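agent> Task received from the user: take the single chain below, predict its 3D structure, and emit structure tokens. No templates, no multimer pairing.
agent> Plan: (1) validate residues, (2) run structure prediction, (3) serialize to tokens, (4) report one or two observations.
agent> Step 1 OK, no nonstandard residues flagged.
tool_call: predict_structure(input=
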Amino acid sequence: MLDKGHTPRWQINLTKLSPVKIFLSAAREKYVTGRGPMSRRERVVRALEFKAPDRVPHQKKDFWFLFHVPPRSWQPPADYYPYVHPGMVATRAWKWAKRPGAKWLQEDRIAIDEFGTVWKASGRTSLGETVKGPLQDGWRLLDDYRLPDMKDWGRFAQAAALSKWLQGDRYRLGVDGNSIRERFQYLRGFENAMTDMVLHPDESAHLLDMITDMTLDIVENFHKAGADGFMLVDDWGSQDRALISPRHFEQFFLPRYRRVTRRCHELGMHCGMHSCGDIKALLPLMIEAGLEFIQLDSPEMCGLDWLAQNVAGKICIFAAVDIQQVYPTNDPAMVERYVKDLILKLGDHNGGLVGWPYAEPWVIEVGVKTVRLEEKLFRKYGRYPLDLAALK
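)
tool_result: status=success, residues=392
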């Protein structure tokens, strides 16, 4: 109960705003941009579809993420730690029945996931390095192998419940932790995965179909959870080239990605992919597969000018401030120049760009001030119609 004469905080803030400023701001939205105030979901949809958002959307402000978790019935074998996202453990979205000491998530450890892949996990990041895949020792193991059941709604129920209460008007994006190519690699091991398409094409196709079927189950449940879009996670590039030839990508992966994008579109969802590395040779095929966005942590591995000339305007780019050459420098001038270049070169298509900062900046030694600066710069320069003079 408020004391008599007490003014609520929101009223205090509102009274500090000039009525003239309020009127001019509303008038600009309606008459200069040709629309009224825009919801965050609409902003992202318009950016994805090149339909004139009011500004460049930003991951932290405009998105709500949906996830899936292992069932609590799955527990790691006695000799292993569980390989699940630390956030899921910290929030008890998934619970380890063993109940070890509280600090195990901060330690380097050998862990196993519910697919049977063994990992060397780091206490500094949610990521890890594979040690051995469950199908690594031979294709004969595939006969008795079963992928986890992604039809199980219980894996998605917590994310759906949280979304219902907390998402607001954000765009809801379902993210698959590891998708078709990466899951294939984690099951077969890196060296096998690099040669299987040539040496074992039939077995490879069979396993890829199994993984794709599982991915479609994930799409169905994300749709049930209320997702507006779905993001595959498949790294396709090394530092200087794609990990596979366009010919083999077209033979083995293009039709399976098409199955996923087709189902997303039937359900009214957008579909895109996170992919690191130099993927210039594969991006045209990704667009052909029906992907509507590509998320790049290191745009410089393709090059902003190449992206601008070859794919900008054809696929929406979720772009980070480059995490190899720019973001870790913590140099305000470099970060500002890069954000301006992203907007100028990739976002001048009536949309087509989303600001997407790196998820774990502490791992690459990016400071809090730099993180805040990146967000501020997208707000400053990312309003449509773009101020081209300010961006140059």
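agent> Step 4: summary for the user.
The chain has two domains: 40-68+150-391, 78-141.
agent> Done.
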